[in-house]
Amino acid sequence: MLRGNFSAKIDDKGRLKLPTAFRAFIQERYGTRLFVTSLSGDCARIYPMPVWERIEQKLAQVPSSHPSRSRFFDRINYFGQPAEFDRQGRVSIHQRLRESALIVGEVDVFGLYDYLDVWNHDRFVAKLQREPYSEEDARALAEFGI
To answer: Which pLDDT belongs to residue 129?
Structure first.
């Protein structure tokens, strides 16, 4: 499982050196192929390709004429590209996504069960302040036994 937060760096060529713990888990469980994208452009999301393919299988069940499906694919494909770990454990992040998400230099990499999010540190701290964890959140999760 991918969990926690590690600092990492995106080099001048737009390659992210993934934290060793995350990279080792992904490679061992899923292999080296990835899909790097974003729905909002605020952060980069890195899916192991088998995880992304499961999402695509679910999307295949949605009629192609459904407007939400179209909007989802518009954003995912605008920001997204297939990728693969290189020998040094780096993954390239598309320039359009790096610019939109403001991810250059030092970044935060978050494990989210079976995918990763890559955030500009200041942007993520602002998100935490803008969207605090509330009593309503606690009640909602309590319904799931959390």
So the answer is: 96
